[in-house]
Specification:
The protein has 256 residues and is of the alpha+beta class. The protein has 9 helices and 9 strands. Helix 5 packs antiparallel against helix 9. The longest helix is centred in the last third of the chain and has 25 residues. The protein is globular.
Length: 256
């Protein structure tokens, strides 16, 4: 079991910030001997989970990892429910649209359709988004039980963007506001120059599943566009909730 944990730690040492790593860097990150790292990497390489750049001596994740991504998306069962709606919203707004789901105490970007117009704002697929960091996840956090919200708040609030909320009381007030109006808006809380609007969607018994969001540069998000996006997301998020409830296509084991 310890060996399995080490293997998993090695794979998770790769990220958006560390797409390539030497065996020594991996060993330092996961705190195991370099000799052990080499053995794991050789096995991973044979199975296509990592690739070796022989010129630089660095490793990166292999394309066979995408098979796991596909399996996760199909297991979650939201692709047929949400993808057509994501595409519709992206076509109408011509801005970046995201489907984010709750995964334990983080947000998980499930799907994103990027705007054809730069600049664009969206986290990388699979990046664990803290639930307090921006509208896409705040609108999820707002509908969690109070005990879970408080546990997250008491764990500390890290600053990500120029206007990140780092005060527990300010965040509590924001979450109350979100529950009151039914959606979230944020400015530069994760990316400088960005604005986002997000609506929640639910499964049966009003259990939160995730959010449907549109993000864009602040200068492209004037008051008229904001009204249009709010109306569109309000309608489409309800549509997602109804489809999830009707089709029972979501695996509740993935949420808190």
């Amino acid at each position: 079991m310890k060996s399995l944990e080490r293997a998993i730690d090695i794979l998770f040492s790769f990220s958006g910030e560390h797409t390539t790593r030497t065996p020594a860097e991996i060993a330092a990150a996961v705190e195991i001997p370099v000799s052990s790292v080499y053995r794991f990497l050789k096995t991973f390489e044979r199975r296509g989970l990592v690739e070796l750049d022989r010129r630089t001596g660095t490793y990166s994740l292999g394309y066979d990892v995408l098979m796991l991504e596909s399996a996760v998306r199909k297991k979650i069962g939201l692709d047929k429910i949400t993808k057509p709606i994501l595409d519709k919203v992206a076509s109408i707004t011509r801005e970046t649209v995201q489907i984010t789901i709750l995964n334990k105490d983080h947000g998980f970007l499930l799907f994103a359709e990027e705007s054809p117009i730069p600049p664009r704002f969206a986290p990388e697929f699979g990046f664990p988004m803290p639930l307090y960091a921006g509208c896409t996840v705040q609108v999820i956090m707002a509908y969690l039980p109070e005990s879970i919200r408080e546990r997250i708040i008491n764990g500390g609030l890290k600053k990500f963007g120029p206007r990140s909320i780092t005060s527990p009381d300010v965040l509590r007030a924001r979450l109350r506001e979100i529950r009151g109006q039914g959606y979230a808006i944020s400015f530069e809380e994760f990316y400088p120059g960005s604005k986002g609007i997000a609506f929640p969607f639910f499964r049966s018994e009003n259990r939160i599943v995730g959010s449907l969001a549109v993000s864009a540069p602040i200068e492209r998000f004037d008051s008229e566009k904001e009204r249009q996006v709010i109306a569109l997301l309000a309608e489409e998020s309800v549509r997602i909730s109804k489809r999830i409830t009707a089709q029972d296509g979501y695996d509740p084991k993935l949420v808190i």
